[in-house]
Amino acid sequence: MENKRIKCLIIGSGPAGYTAAIYAGRANITPVLYEGIQPGGQLTITTEVENFPGYPNGVSGTQLMEDLRTQAQKFGADIRSGAVTAADLSCSPYKITIGEEKIIEAETLIIATGATAKYLGLEDEKKYAGMGVSACATCDGFFYRKKQVAVVGGGDTACEEALYLAGLASKVYLIVRKPYLRASSIMQTRVSERKNIKILF
Q: Per the database record, which ranges form the FAD/NAD(P)-binding domain (predicted)?
């Protein structure tokens, strides 16, 4: 195995990872950033981003992430392909395994792995991602104004998404797979009080 020691390692290439790389680069730390299994993060599967500062006319998720990547590189970030497969955080320097062949010893470690949307596993979910199938009401709700939409889930997150969409869509169907809501009582109350949300158990 190859071993290398660096000052700053960033894991993840979404907005948080690239922002960390920009700041570290401007501080002359020369960070190394590993992109992970989805370079650019979740925004690369978003058709249009209209709520990111500096883009008054909106920007595609892919273009936004490319702009952030370019800016990070401008300040000296060393951006590499690869995913972390193991980490020993018991003492400094931290030992991070990339793939199966490389161990990096990092004095500073920034974990910016973001989140992964939880999909249902239906056959055409990926096919229609960004074209009617979404995992972020705040990101994409604008595109469903005055339309009928469905949210799947019965926890707090699903209820929050349904409530947000209720302010935009004509009707929101909250499809709950269990015979009851798992959400906190206050979220259940808010959902049940919205006239344009219909809960389907």
A: 7-198
